[in-house]
Amino acid sequence: MKGTEIIVKALKEEGVDTIFGYPGGQAVDIFDALYGEKEIEVILPRHEQALIHAADGYARSTGKVGVCLVTSGPGATNLVTGIATANYDSVPLVCITGQVPLGLMGNDAFQEVDIVGITNSICKYAVTVRTREELPRILKEAFYIARTGRPGPVVVDIPKDIQQAEGSDAYPEEVNMRGYKPNQSVHVGQIKKAVSMLKRAKKPLFLIGGGVNISGANEEMRQLAETTGVPVITTIMGKGAIPSDHRLYLGNIGIHGSYAANHAVSECDVLFSIGTRFNDRITGKISEFAKNAKIIHIDIDSASISKNIVVDIPIVADARLAIMKLLEYVAPLKNEKWVEQLLQWKEEYPITMNNYDGLTPEKIIQYINNHFESPIVTTDVGQNQLWATQYLELQSGRHFLTSGGLGTMGYGFPAAIGAKIGNPESTVIAISGDGGMQMNIQELATAVALELPLILIVLNNGYLGNVRQWQELFYQKRYSNTCLRYRKSCEDNCTDKSKCCPKYTPDFIKLAESYEAYGIRISKEEEIARAFDYALGHKNAPTIIECVIEREANVFPIVPTGKTLDDMIMD
Predict the structure, then answer these.
(1) 274-291 residue pLDDT tens
(2) Given this model, what pLDDT does residue 495 score?
(3) Which of 258, 234, 290, 236 is nearest to 568 (CA)?
(4) Which end of the chain has fewer CB within 10 Å, C or N?
(5) Is 362 helix (H, G, I), strand (E, B) or coil?
(6) Contact 305/275 with Cβ under 8 angstroms?
């Protein structure tokens, strides 16, 4: 077999049915080998960055490995942001990049870059194939590494002469890597220690991160919470670990977390954390984080344990396996007063936008909660993401896709394309800001070509809203380069929103129509239902619902940088 033929065989052996690819000179042989294949669909987005975000959305929503195929040089470098995005959020991807022939490598050949060197620090593994003989083994290892342990992206760089070279048609059935042995067991002794500490607690609390959703442990986590009676808080990536309408669920923790969740961390005496890295977005001032608590930490990645927060009982294990083992030993705890206190805080200090008139993100998202059963919702990054994490009700973690670790604008729309391709029977809704939506707006062509009836919500406040909010609260309203209505003829240092601002560019409705998609603009609460009915009426193309919202609407609560979780600005 030629190298390209063994690549196609490897894809089939690994169960790949969808590839997100963009052709080019050093990958054209692989695309030629895929021509006419019935078992594998090749999706052609309009930009490589959108391509990898689509593969990411496909992987997160299905649990499968997402596959990217691009050419060398700019084709490969355009994947870099998406590789880092997937790496932070533990998304299994195999990124196959074409490369110039071995004899030209290192000679500054046309469209040559050292993509392995570029991506080594932002992916799980990166390798250049040097011989035709090692190609099947490397491909087998790539899929194995991507999907096992803490999942992540793998880059396989294949020179053009390796693609064309002939060799054995054998594809390995097993992987045997001396340096990579992901943990597949649970230390029972540590589990028993954790259970013993939990039993002695008077104010126990579960902190759940994205690891629970990645491992598919949602049902087991619900059982654990209900069996013990211990309340649950989540990171943004952990939302959906238990149903968000569950009595024991208090909300998200962190700089935009709920009052009840943030205060629970400060008051608890045992913090039982599963599948989170304790990054700065959730801890606030590290020295004050959970200062009254003993901390138990379960994570599949040993490097994440005691990296930011020193813990008392470390358990290296897959979240689902660990929770299943916990269920063998736990029993109901007597902590009714503690739970009642937290539920009282949750009731007294709800997250709401009732102080804003007219159309608000809360009302839009509540409409989704009330009228759609288990939609898949993607978000971009910024205020739109934060409002979604606050108000969206979830039954499953795989139904909420967002860039949590890297915070990548331009993620939401292409991720929705990937999610819809992987889940054709599901309703897929993308929530974006007017800034983030424009970062990959060209993918309207992809969605139209694939006849995907996506619902694209654009929360248009005419600003890069999240940065503008920080400028309002902490920089004396010095709105530096955040107004998207700006014209060169505008006054300098304008902070008066009542002034007659220039017309917004672009007109999202006309732009959608130019792509043969659909669009509708709303600015009042009573128009929400009509807009969604309009979108649902189109089965062969996406619909943009442009929601014109209050220009200076803010996301509250907020914890200022360097402050503790108790130092929340509520409104």
Answers:
(1) 999 998 889 999 999 999
(2) 67
(3) 258
(4) C
(5) helix
(6) no
Tokens read off for 246: 């569950």
The predicted model scores a pTM of 0.96
Per-residue b/e over 65-79, b at no fewer than 16 CB within 10 Å?
A: bbbbbbbbbebbbbb
| Whole-angstrom distance, CA of residue 310 vs CA of residue 45 | 44
Distance CA 318, CA 320 (A): 6
SS3 204: strand
Question: Tens digits of per-residue pLDDT, 360-417?
Answer: 999 999 999 999 999 999 999 999 999 999 999 998 878 999 999 999 999 999 999 9
Cβ of 176: how many Cβ atoms within 10 Å?
Answer: 10
In a 3-state reduction of DSSP, which class is residue 548?
strand
| Structural tokens at position 415 | 């991720």
153: number of CA atoms within 13 Å, CB side? 28
Which parts of the chain register pLDDT below 50?
Answer: none
Q: For residues 200 and 13, give the distance between their C-alpha atoms in angstroms, rounded to a whole number.
A: 50
Question: Do 462 and 438 contact (CB within 8 A), yes or no?
Answer: no
Question: Residue 558 is encoded by which pair of tokens?
Answer: 């907020």
Helix (H) or strand (E) holding 60, with range, is helix 48-62
546: Cβ contacts below 8 Å, ≥ 6 apart: 458, 460, 508, 509, 519, 520, 521, 522
Q: How many angstroms separate the Cα of 34 from the Cα of each of 7, 38, 69, 74, 149?
A: 9, 9, 11, 22, 30
CA dist 344 and 45 (Å) reads: 49
What are the C-alpha distances in Å from 21 to residues 18, 117, 417, 444, 451? 10, 22, 14, 17, 18
Q: Measure the CA–CA gap between 212 and 210, rounded to whole angstroms.
A: 5
pLDDT at 501: 84
d(CA 68, CA 424): 20
For residue 498, the model assigns a pLDDT of 67
pLDDT value for 358: 93
User: Which H helix or E strand runs over 320?
Assistant: helix 319-326
Per DSSP, the three-state class of 273 is: strand
Both tokens of 411, joined, read 């993620």
Residue 415: φ, ψ to 5° = -65, -35
Non-local CB neighbours of 152 within 8 Å, separated by 6+ positions: 86, 87, 90, 91, 92, 93, 123, 124, 145, 146
- Whole-number Cα distances in Å, 296 to 117, 208, 532, 565: 37, 12, 44, 19
Q: Note the pLDDT of residue 429.
A: 98
Contact between 387 and 362 (Cβ < 8 Å): yes
Token pair of 346, please?
């949750």
What pLDDT is stored for residue 184 in this prediction? 86
Distances 339 to 229, 330, 514, 555 between C-alpha atoms, Å: 8, 18, 54, 27
Query: What is the spatial distance between Cα 98 and Cα 156, in angstroms, rounded to a whole number?
Result: 9
Q: How many CB atoms lie within 10 A of CB 310?
A: 12
Supply the DSSP symbol for 502: P
Q: What is the pLDDT of residue 497?
A: 63
The rounded mean pLDDT for the chain is 96
Three-class secondary structure of residue 271 per DSSP: strand
Residue indicated by tokens 């691009």: 70
Strand ordering across the sheet containing 518-522 = 400-401, 376-379, 428-433, 455-460, 543-548, 518-522
